[in-house]
Design brief:
The complex is a heterodimer of chains A (about 550) and B (about 200).
Chain A lengths: L25 H5 L4 H29 L9 H20 L2 H15 L7 H23 L13 H5 L4 H28 L12 H33 L12 H35 L6 H14 L15 H29 L8 H24 L1 H7 L3 H31 L5 H28 L13 H31 L48
Chain B lengths: L2 H30 L1 H7 L5 H26 L3 H31 L17 H37 L9 H26 L5
The chains are: A mainly alpha (about 550), B mainly alpha (about 200).
């Protein structure tokens, strides 16, 4: 029997169905196979880990305000170790691939999802399991071996929770491998009709190259950590010099992954910068082929330079010569990118929206970081600054001044697409400025400190270094504020931000042709691609 | 090439790199301690190892035949060859078990009761080499156990008539995995058992 309803009550204007509101149950989130939802799950997870690793940094930078410090040496060692482990393995390695690339690659190639959606979900589960294992280690007091886990300290002498941290990294490594595998197969097999390799956005090229490194390098880290675990559990001696084992073998195996890992950490950021610069110069990326192939060249060369982390461990002259030369070579493709980005901006119509501000920051800071990398690739200068704050400053310039800036820039650029909302441009510009100032104040003094000889990983230092350390800590507090402000206005925008249309930036690219936020299967009809990438019209001169 | 095939090959490449780390460690230590290595070869049971090699090669044959059966929608043969592959796989593990037991009895398990009374001056270095033996063959055996699990999944699914000429990708992919595990053994056997072995 039908119920009689005279006039159904007026409903609120219907919000179009998109991947966020299609279902609200927790099961629909935790068991999703939608790459966009998985990307959101990753965004939440890695943001949490970022602030955790950042908190460790706040703690040890406070310690470094005075020459004698306030923490015991062992506590200090645990703080910087956890900072490194969390930031490298649980923030930087997954960051852009697992979040932005997960979200965007299927859309950018014109597909409904990645090649293996359930593997994508498994990748997130593995990340969470790895993070829980690492956090267990933190809760029990952390590790004090440094993120590099060198034996014989890590295997024999350390009293800290090495095993659970190492297993956490081991599990997270498989998360990384599966993400890379998914991207490789997706880019090969799931491109829409007309989407040839040379029409792919450069963001896709970068993440494809990243996937290659993830797939080839991470397994070596896995077996290395496993061998270390056996050594620690059973003392079988593989890295124990007392019975003929070789700790340097661990270093070779460890750096065979960990050097390519730094390219896993930077290549996706470079992809983001290509997208942002093209959009906010309203011009196609100059030298598309060079930029695309430079990503591949970086992926290949990254595997043959690991020895530059071991110049002072007794490498032969011939080995150091080879690694030094190859390290110079690997800088070339990165430089090619920087030149092509600047050429893109030349005679473009440049606007200074927040993503572009982050891109500018990236270009400047990554260049400084990269140039100091060349300084370190040269044997003579490396020997003088190895183990000092110069190295710390170098890699923070590329990782934080480079990658984190790119991550923030990408989050701001694609925020309207991911959430369907615009954030406050005034606050975002302000935060970008704070981040830039804070970053430089934190890390530039560290170049000087390293050059003057202050060793890294030391809880105390000679009094003459105090001024520079205080500057660095002051910078760190400003940088921290710079990272917290976006949390506030971005979360605020979720509820109160202006609704974004499909293409708020007027950018080119398949992701800007679909609604913001997209529907679950991205495209109603599989697109046919007829244009080259970055199909911005000719820049018109404005007279008057 | 299907996406699933490319995906499985990419995964197998990661496995090559994974085992590669152990192979690299093995190469380094064998190079550093050639006499200690030579002294360990007398403890490697070539008969059992050789039998295992034959067993695995047969299992690869039956696996390939099972893929063929799936392609031809021949459910009976598919299930038969899957069962045969699993029997060969289990046989491999049983023989391995006997080998490990022998090592245990001879006090050659590092970290537990390792004693090297016949060549005491090589004891330390031999310990490392035996660890690598257990690590490499043990990791391989672990992959075989996983493979047996995957094969039993295939068997159950084949029983439910899930595979035919129209759809047999899982059989093919797991077949690739099984062949890979076999190939790893083909490398392990000569390196660990045959080189330097005196009859």
């Amino acid at each position: 029997m039908a119920t009689l309803v005279a006039n159904p009550p007026p409903t609120a204007p219907e919000e179009p169905v998109n991947y966020l509101n299609v279902e609200h149950t927790w099961k629909s989130w935790l068991f999703t196979t939608d790459h966009k939802r998985i990307a959101v799950l990753y965004i939440l997870s890695i943001t949490f880990m970022f602030f955790f690793g950042g908190a460790a940094a706040v703690a040890f930078r406070i310690n470094l305000l005075t020459p004698q410090g306030i923490f015991a040496a062992e506590t200090y060692n645990r703080l910087f170790s956890m900072h490194g482990i969390i930031m490298v393995f649980f923030f930087l390695v997954p960051s852009i691939p697992a979040t932005l690339a997960n979200f965007l690659i299927p859309i950018m190639v014109g597909a409904k999802d990645l090649a293996f959606p359930r593997v994508n979900l498994l990748s997130w589960y593995l990340y969470i399991i790895g993070a829980i294992l690492a956090m267990y280690s933190v809760l029990r007091g952390g590790v004090d071996t440094g993120w590099t886990f060198y034996p014989p300290y890590s295997s024999t002498f350390s009293n800290s929770y090495v095993l659970s941290a190492a297993f956490g990294v081991f599990v997270a490594g498989f998360s990384s491998i599966l993400t890379g595998l998914n991207f490789i197969v997706t880019v090969h097999k799931m491109r829409a009709p007309g989407m040839t390799w040379s029409r792919l956005p450069l963001f896709v090229w970068s993440n494809y190259a990243t996937g290659l490194i993830q797939v080839l390098g991470t397994p070596v880290l896995a077996i290395t950590l496993l061998l270390l675990a056996f050594e620690r559990i059973a003392h079988i001696g593989i890295f124990d010099p007392a019975i003929g084992g070789d700790p340097i073998l661990f270093q070779h195996l460890f750096w065979f992954y960990s050097h390519p890992a730094v390219y896993i950490m930077i290549l996706p950021g470079m992809g983001v910068i290509s997208e942002i610069i093209a959009c906010f110069s309203r011009k196609r990326v100059f030298g598309y082929n060079f930029v695309a192939f430079s990503s591949m060249a970086i992926a290949v060369l990254s595997f043959v330079v690991w020895g530059h982390h071991m110049f002072v461990t007794g490498e032969s002259v011939y080995a150091t010569l080879a690694f030094s030369f190859l390290s110079f070579m690997v800088a070339v493709p990165s430089a090619i990118k920087v030149f092509n980005w600047t050429a893109t901006m030349y005679k473009g119509s440049v606007s200074f929206d927040t993503p572009m501000l982050y891109a500018f920051g990236f270009i400047g800071l990554f260049t400084i970081g990269g140039l100091t990398g060349l300084y370190l690739a040269a044997l003579g200068t490396d020997v003088a600054t190895h183990g000092t704050y110069f190295i710390v400053a170098h890699f923070h310039y590329v990782m934080v001044g480079g990658m984190v800036m790119a991550f923030l820039g990408g989050m701001h650029y694609w925020w309207p697409k991911i959430t369907g909302r615009m954030y406050s441009e005034a606050w975002s510009k302000f935060a970008a400025l704070i981040v830039f100032i804070g970053f430089n104040l934190t890390f530039f003094p560290q170049f000087i400190l390293g050059y003057l000889g202050m060793p890294r990983r030391y809880h105390a230092y000679p009094p003459e270094f105090q001024t520079l350390n205080v500057l660095s800590t002051a910078g760190a507090s400003i940088l921290g504020i710079g990272y917290i402000i976006p949390m506030i206005y971005l979360i605020y925008s979720l509820k109160y931000g202006a609704k974004a249309g499909p293409n708020p930036w007027g950018a080119s690219g398949l992701e800007w042709q679909i609604p913001s936020p997209p529907t679950t299967f991205n495209f109603d009809v599989t697109p046919t691609v007829v244009e080259e990438a970055y199909n911005y019209g000719p820049v018109e001169e404005v007279i008057g | 090439m299907d996406a699933s095939t490319l995906g499985m090959w990419t995964f197998l490449i990661t496995e090559v790199l994974f085992f590669g780390g152990m192979f690299a460690a093995y190469a380094v230590y064998r190079n550093m301690y050639p006499q200690a290595f030579a002294s360990t070869s007398v403890y490697m049971n070539v008969i059992l190892g050789g039998t295992n090699t034959a067993v695995l090669i047969c299992s690869s044959l039956t696996m390939a035949l099972s893929v063929r059966a799936a392609q031809l929608s021949n459910r009976r043969h598919l299930m038969l060859f899957l069962v045969l592959t699993m029997i060969f796989g289990a046989t491999f593990l049983v023989i391995k078990g006997f080998e490990y037991h022998d090592k245990w009895v001879e006090h050659l398990v590092p970290g537990f009761n390792f004693r090297y009374d016949e060549f005491p001056k090589y004891a330390h270095n031999a310990q490392i080499l035996f660890f690598l033996y257990f690590c490499m063959t043990g990791m391989h055996a672990l992959h075989m156990i996983v493979g047996l699990g995957l094969l039993s999944y295939l068997l159950v699914q084949a029983g439910r008539r899930m595979y035919s000429a129209n759809y047999f990708a899982p059989v093919e992919m797991i077949g690739l995995y099984w062949h890979f595990v076999d190939v790893v053994w083909i490398f392990l056997f000569p390196l660990l058992y045959l080189i330097g072995h005196r009859r």
